[in-house]
Write a structure and sequence with these properties.
A hairpin with a 6-residue loop joins strand 13 and strand 14. The protein is globular, with a radius of gyration of 43 Å. The longest helix is centred in the C-terminal third of the chain and has 116 residues. The strands form seven sheets. Strands 6-7-21-8-17-11-12 form a seven-stranded mixed β-sheet, with helices on both faces. A five-stranded antiparallel β-sheet has the order 4-3-2-1-5. A three-stranded antiparallel β-sheet has the order 18-19-20, covered by helices on one side. Helix 26 crosses helix 28 and helix 31 packs across helix 35. The protein is α+β, with helices and mostly antiparallel strands.
Length: 1262
């Protein structure tokens, strides 16, 4: 936080009109006695308004004018003095807060308030907030406000915004309000004004934050980050561009080489490319960024830009296929159609306008004041500067053309079967030509994709809704992958090996969102902002703690970052299972639905966490964030999280003739897709976002952060208009009010000793002026330092000891204390001013009376002299006789001139009335036409809304029915296929009896081996569970050790506190022993820091161990699921084997032969037992390694990390072996199932032994 700097005043022993802020400070035009430039006629302190009044009317009282001017100036525009009334803020539904003063307080504690809108209100005392003194109006830093409340923050922002001051500090925050107009505050002169200047020198600005980050990087050699957040339309993108422009300007040397200059130019030109592909028009903003980005700008040791790298997050893919009527798709679609050359559009087969494409026609088509053709030219220029080749530009634009063709691909349905069909084959040919794939193969993959049913592949018929969903998913995937490719290409250009040692990262990401319907996307964004707010809270109080430590202030450290941890754990934690983990788990369950997912969340968290509640919605939940409670609708979450694609189409696109299209889908090639599934590389949207956010927070934690919060002033995009309710809601969501809440717990206001003494020493003055102050009495005997002088003043003021702290160089105050001191000071100053005014009025009145007396005496003397000198003068007599004639002639001439002017004015007035009547008629006609147009527009809008609602309901119902029909049809097809397979197996059974016997024998051997391996795997699972339990015990012991360490730390803190008190006592009693006590204190502090570092190391090690345990638990749970599934399949196989055994009793005659095979099985069992013994021996080795790991953990040695890594590698290898064995067992079971399925009723042989008995004997032998 920043220290408060009140206005400077003169010392009380030299009181003067200037030092007491008298009204002439505002230049009323007054002159001092005998001052230069004073008129010789008037030698008094007379303000110019009084002089002019006296010259016109001698009866004016000058004292009244002075009193009126003083009142106006003292109250800063208030109707009366601030100190005379208790001003408060009252909540208001329309204005958020309204100002008023208390007129009465009744016995019940109710306040009667007269508001500035002349309304009278009665409210409870605890429902009002105090108003800050006038000196805090338009404060540069809202952390300096002595009354830190929501109303004062909103009022300060509004006052500055109306004065075109759009930037304001709020402690560590820079609050930026969108001006909705161009302001001349970003020129090179402003860049020079903020270059190498501290934050306190110049007014708040985005340049000041950027320069501070740049200087911190160079001076401290520490990476920096600037976090820019806010709602859509609040100005995040523009402020991010200003940051980059400032860095490019201040780092460009006069002797720069062409290479460095090109890097800076490329960084600036990356913005138009990203805006074209990542920005669009929304209801609130014409150029809204629809993705988050973290731009890392690298710097060399000399402070020159050496490269950059861009990470992106949460691209809004759904905007590609649908937009609201008042919004647009991404800018690049319109720029391609309006600005690309005709040859390029012909190459992509784009022969229509914007309204001819389904993905564009439902939204806005143009942006007022912006030409898409000009923007396309700027885009191509930026491509050239960035070094993109013509082929690379064509590849990027080809993806956009393909998406437009996908949107125009119309799909219908067969009347008889409901199967989907293409209505216009020509459009499919255009699309396939642009993608570089065969049209027949694409049509088959789209309408009848090849899917796996059991062990066979079949062609599945798709409905119209399923095909449309596949097309939309393909369009979104194409755009996302094309955007990722574009960012990677930009990074390849910007990333240079030029010795980058430091970087400044600029984060531009959407702020906290609360809509009428909040879905999966809002949860991801709010989860991100929850983590960022936790990062800010922790960082803020780390700085506060450092400040208190430097000033030797007694303070118990509170980390408010932990306040948000319960909500974060509820979203991201794996054990107990959080929202993301539960969602990922249900995404792999075959019959999971959004409803079952929601019910599962309720069972896990309802009434178990105060941050989670079931939603009032039909399907959803309510989550408590730092900003507010948010209701989330879980409709469609499983689908959004998996983001499914038609594998037939993606595999076809991986073989495209267009290299760029094939490159985008290279991971979806048939071999690559299978390998990726086997390796488990598939990631859900939640997993990817969580990994990206973890990486982002890791980078931010390695930097020194700076925070910028952008505010949307109104929804009408009008300058100098602020909606206080809207702004207040954003301040809550942006964490500004959260920061103020945290500031209230500490000492937010602080003054240096000199400033505090200069401003408030006047409050403790007694009788004899400045000589009567405690400081004056102390200094009379010698020098008194600032700390002691401030302590004397505070003691004399009789403030509560808990309301302030005296540091080494500053005085720290709780919120509200400075307001009380300001009130007392203002009352005292008003008393002094009143005394001066009374003296001035008396002096002026005496001067006024004397002047009137002298004037009256002079008039009498002049009249007597004129009468005496002009009585006998003939010329005077003639003048007296001629004067009436001259006056009559002059009046006649003036009358004729006035008549002429009157006639001209009458004629002009008649013409003006005629023109006004015509203009009125035209305006009335235009108004009538406008009214008709508005009525027509309103009716059309209402009709369109009704039609859209009906269409939406119909489409929803149709989609539900089609899904049910599709599921039923798939079940019927599966049953028919199974019946056909059974009939074929029965017809072939008689012909293949002999072959079945051998295969049955082989199956019996395999079953025996599988039984042995299953028992070995069961034992292995038991061993792993035992290991997991031992790890949990180990974690419990570590927790015990942590408690012991915490106890030791508390003891050390108590010892440090006790020795600090002893130090103070020894300083007062024995000054000669200072050095010895300081040495003891330094040793205690070193021991405390050493213990603190040991505790932090133990916490980090504990956290790493917890993560390993969680990973092992997840792996074990997955393995248990696989084993349970295989056991279910074994049970089914046993039932089928029993049925076949009953029908084939003749196989018992072959008992002797099978007994020989049993011996082989016994040998195999021996081998398996040997392998089991090896596994047990390996587990014993693992246990010994764990014991070694436990001992190394107690010793806090560096070898612990290496051993843990080795154990992790061993576990991965063992789990890999187990997975291979399970896959082997699965293949064997499928082979046995095939054999058993082929057996028929005619394959029986009397006297033979059943395979069930053979297997039973094998198990018994084992």
């Amino acid at each position: 936080m920043k220290q408060t700097t009140p206005p400077r005043v003169a010392s009380p022993d030299k009181l003067s009109p200037m030092s007491l802020n008298l009204p002439h400070g505002r230049n009323h035009g007054g002159t001092l006695l005998n001052s230069p430039g004073t008129s010789k006629r008037v030698h008094t302190f007379t303000p110019s308004p009084i002089k002019s009044a006296m010259s016109l009317n001698d009866n004016v009282d000058p004292g009244a004018a002075i009193d009126r001017n003083v009142k106006e100036d003292d109250n800063n525009g208030e109707p009366t003095g601030y100190s005379e009334k208790q001003w408060v803020w009252v909540a208001d539904a329309e204005k958020a807060f309204i100002k008023g003063f208390i007129t009465q307080e009744d016995e019940e504690g109710m306040l009667h308030i007269r508001c500035t809108d002349d309304s009278d209100r009665i409210v409870q005392k605890e429902h009002v907030d105090k108003v800050n003194p006038p000196k805090f109006d338009k404060s540069n830093d809202m952390a300096e406000l002595t009354h830190l409340n929501e109303a004062s923050v909103v009022h300060n922002l509004a006052a500055r915004y109306m004065a075109d001051m759009i930037y304001t500090y709020s402690g560590l925050f820079l609050v930026a309000v969108n001006p909705y107009c161009s302001l001349p505050i970003y020129s090179r002169e402003y860049i020079a004004m903020y270059k190498n200047k501290s934050r306190d020198v110049a007014p708040p600005h985005i340049y000041a934050i950027t320069d501070q980050a740049f200087r911190n990087m160079l001076e401290m050699h520490e990476n920096q980050s600037i976090l820019v957040t806010g709602e859509s339309g609040a100005g995040k993108t523009e402020n991010t561009k200003k940051v980059i422009q400032y860095l490019a300007a201040v780092t460009t040397p006069t002797h720069a080489t062409s290479e460095l200059g090109r890097i800076e130019q490329q960084i600036l030109q990356a913005n138009p490319i990203l805006e074209a592909f990542g920005n669009s028009q929304t209801v609130r903003n014409h150029n809204s960024s629809r993705f988050g980005k973290f731009i890392k700008i690298g710097f060399s040791r000399s402070g020159q830009i050496s490269g950059a790298y861009i990470n992106w997050y949460l691209l809004e893919k759904s905007r590609v296929v649908t937009q609201s009527p008042l919004e647009r798709n991404y800018h690049i679609f319109y720029q391609l159609l309006c600005g690309a050359p005709a040859s390029l559009r012909e190459k992509f087969l784009l022969d229509g306008k914007v309204g001819d494409y389904a993905y564009l026609k439902n939204g806005q088509r143009t942006i007022p004041g912006i030409s898409d053709a000009d923007e396309f030219n700027k885009l191509t220029s930026a491509f050239k500067i960035m070094g993109f080749s013509d082929q690379e530009q064509t590849d990027l634009l080809r993806v956009i053309a393909v998406i437009l063709h996908i949107g125009n691909l119309e799909v219908g349905a067969e009347r008889s079967t409901g199967q989907a069909k293409l209505l216009h084959y020509v459009q499919a040919e255009k699309l396939c030509h642009a993608m570089g794939v065969p049209v027949d193969a694409f049509t088959k993959a789209l309408l009848r994709p090849r899917v796996k049913a059991g062990r066979d592949w079949i062609d599945q018929s798709r409905t119209q809704a399923q095909v449309q969903f596949s097309l939309h998913a393909l369009a979104k995937a194409l755009y996302e992958r094309g955007f990722a490719y574009l960012v990677n290409k930009i990074n390849e250009v910007l990333e240079r090996d030029s010795g980058s040692t430091m970087f400044i990262g600029v984060l531009d990401i959407a702020g906290f969102e609360i809509f009428e319907t909040n879905s999966f996307e809002q949860l991801c964004i709010n989860y991100t902002n929850e983590k960022l707010q936790q990062f800010f809270n922790h960082h803020m109080f780390v700085l506060e703690q450092d400040e208190y430590a430097r000033e030797n202030i007694d303070w118990q450290f509170i980390d408010f970052g932990h306040d948000l941890q319960p909500t974060i754990d509820l979203i991201e934690k794996s054990n107990p299972i959080g929202i993301f983990s539960c969602l990922d788990e249900d995404c792999v369950m075959p019959r999971a639905t959004d409803k079952s997912f929601t019910e599962k969340l309720h069972s896990l968290w309802d009434k178990k966490s105060d941050k989670y509640k079931p939603s009032l919605l039909k399907l959803g939940f309510r989550l408590t964030h730092y900003a507010a409670e948010v209701d989330y609708s879980t409709d469609g979450w499983l689908e959004k999280n998996t983001d499914p694609l038609n594998e037939n189409i993606t595999q076809l696109l991986s073989l495209s003739d267009q290299p760029h299209i094939a490159r985008l889908f290279a991971d979806d090639a048939e071999g690559a897709l299978t390998a990726r599934k086997k390796k488990g590389l598939f990631r859900t949207v939640a997993q990817r976002h969580k990994e990206q956010l973890t990486s982002l927070m890791t980078q931010l934690n390695s930097t020194r952060p700076h925070f910028v919060r952008c505010i949307l002033p109104n929804h009408e995009k009008r300058p100098r208009k602020m909606d206080n309710v809207l702004v207040l809601d954003q301040l809550r969501c942006n964490g500004v009010l959260e920061g103020i809440r945290i500031a209230r717990t500490g000492f937010p206001n602080r003054l240096s000793f000199a400033e505090f003494r200069q401003r408030y020493e006047i409050l403790v003055t007694h009788g004899g002026g400045a000589r009567g102050t405690p400081v004056a009495r102390a200094t009379a005997t010698g020098y008194v330092d600032g700390q002691k002088a401030s302590s004397l003043i505070l003691d004399a003021l009789k403030l509560d000891k808990s309301a302030y702290r005296v540091g080494i160089t500053k005085v720290f105050f709780r919120a509200g204390v400075l307001a009380e001191l300001e009130d007392r000071r203002e009352k005292l100053v008003r008393t002094v001013i009143t005394l001066i005014q009374s003296q001035a009025r008396g002096y002026l009145q005496r001067r006024y009376v004397n002047k009137r007396l002298h004037r009256a005496e002079a008039v009498q003397i002049i009249a007597m002299n004129i009468k005496a000198s002009q009585t006998d003068n003939p010329w005077w007599k003639m003048y007296v006789k001629m004067q009436p004639l001259l006056i009559a002639q002059r009046e006649t001439v003036q009358s004729m001139a006035r008549d002429g002017e009157y006639r001209k004015v009458v004629a002009q007035l008649a013409d003006a009335e005629t023109e006004a009547q015509k203009a009125w008629e035209r305006a009335r006609k235009v108004e009538a036409e406008m009214k008709k147009v508005q009525e027509t527009l309103e009716s059309e809008r209402a009709l369109a809304i009704d039609q859209q609602e009906i269409l939406r309901r119909t489409q929803t119902r149709e989609a539900d029915l089609e899904e049910q029909l599709s599921a039923t049809q798939e079940d019927l097809d599966m049953l028919e296929a199974q019946c056909e397979e059974l009939l074929d197996a029965k017809r072939k059974a008689d012909k293949e009896v002999e072959m079945w016997r051998g295969e049955l024998e082989k199956g019996a051997r395999i079953m025996g081996r599988l039984e042995g391996e299953k028992s070995a795997m069961d034992k292995r699972i038991e061993v792993l569970e035992a290991g997991l339990r031992s790890k949990e015990d180990k974690e419990g012991r570590i927790q015990g050790e942590m408690e012991q360490l915490n106890q030791e730390i508390r003891v050390l803190k108590a010892i440090v506190s006790q020795r600090e008190k002893q130090l103070i006592a020894i300083e007062e009693k024995l000054k000669t022993s200072d050095m010895e006590v300081e040495n003891r204190l330094e040793q205690s502090r070193l021991r405390f820091e050493s213990s603190n570092r040991q505790m932090q190391a133990a916490v980090r090690e504990n956290h790493e161990l917890r993560e390993q345990i969680v990973n092992l638990s997840q792996t074990t749970s997955k393995f248990e699921g696989i084993v349970k599934k295989k056991e279910a399949e074994i049970i089914v196989l046993r039932a089928e084997l029993k049925q076949e055994t009953e029908r084939r009793e003749e196989l018992e005659k072959e008992k002797a032969t099978l007994e020989l095979e049993v011996e082989g099985v016994v040998k195999r069992i021996g081998i398996v037992e040997d392998e089991s013994e090896n596994l047990r021996r390996r587990m014993r080795e693992v246990e010994s390694e764990r014991e070694a790991f436990r001992s190394r953990l107690r010793q806090k040695d560096e070898e612990e990390g290496q051993m843990r890594a080795k154990q992790a590698v061993v576990r991965k290898e063992e789990m890999k072996v187990l997975r291979e064995r399970v896959n082997e067992a699965e293949k064997s079971l499928r082979m046995v199932a095939d054999v058993l399925d082929k057996m028929g009723d005619n394959s029986q042989r009397p006297g033979g032994r059943s395979p069930r008995k053979v297997l039973s004997e094998n198990v018994s032998v084992k």
